[in-house]
Amino acid sequence: MLLPLAKEPFTAPTDREMLPSERREFVRTHRTCIFGYRRKNDGPAMSVVYYIPTDDGELLVSTMAGRGKARVIARDGKVSLCVLDERWPFAYLQVYADAVIEHDRDLVVDVMMAVAGRMSGEPLPDEGRPVVEAMAEKEDRVVVRCRPYATFAQPPRHLYRNDQEEQITHWVSGVVPWDAPDPA
């Protein structure tokens, strides 16, 4: 089941690393990410996309079948999603995932409807579904189903003044399995 847009995005703590459950909550309650994948030549490809979380922890992305995101997954199903906080100072959380392409037309339209809701900040009315169905057909849309297996988090950091009296702290973060329990 696709999850609705959260009323309030999770705010990352600034004094400690995010717990595994907080990392999942951060991903569940945000809506935009940098979608990255390996290319045969050059550096990684990256694009800004809206994503839709599901109740079982997957992340769904709509794209055209002819775009690089869809084509590369056939040869290499590893992707990264750098989930962005939309508030300043912003945090980010990188999600490492195995990805597959879904062609199910109902799922494609459902995801496109949900993306439209995230873009506008309110659900798209059912009357818009025929327009979205036509767009999905015309653009040969598919869904990238991302199954997270690990995360890497970066806390929000910002220098509010340039007089060096204010201290900015940093620490080393690590990759944490997606389904890791919180420490006791």
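the 2nd protein, sequnce then structure:
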Amino acid sequence: MNVNIEQGWKEQLKDEFEKPYFSELVNFVKEEYLKNRCYPKGSEIFAAFDHCSFDDVRVVIIGQDPYHGPGQANGLCFSVNDGIVMPPSLVNIFKEIENDLGISFPSNGNLQRWAKQGVLLLNATLTVRATQAGSHQNKGWELFTDAVIRAVSEKKENVVFLLWGGFAKKKGAKINRSKHCVLTSGHPSPLSANRGYWFGNGHFSRTNKYLEENGLININW
């Protein structure tokens, strides 16, 4: 099956694209986009991979679903398009960066600038129906994104995986911790953050410290 995705990822995931589940997933997504309003727009479904090639991956952040509100989702987890009000989880991410690194709040929540530095912003499910969180779960996306995580874990070294919240921790259960750095904390959503499970995790400075210790360029958060 010909999937329009960055060439390095295409090579790593070529076996997935030939599996029956992926063919069924493609048919489901096509039907959903035909009949319903879905996010992100079709050309941005694989944006996380297009903005961060396989060769460039140094950090992986795992999200759950794309945002399901108008104009929000752009194919990168936690990220929103330019000019869109930042959702609460993203606000808390920037608050932690400010506390951790002293970097002031950005003017927008578009995280393409992270992706271009080697941060893979991976949602477990890459599409969603408008206003219906979780509507495209258990259709095959999770199998595909498990294969993505497995490819990074097996084929690369010294990658930092940031697992925020129970869902991401389960998703990252099979990462080879002997050759990668895995940092976990609560989710940045207000429910978790306000109970003390997010703020103060220091993940952004700890990520850069690990990258530097392994001779890699740190991330300009």
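The longest strand covers residues 59-63. The chain has a mean pLDDT of 96.
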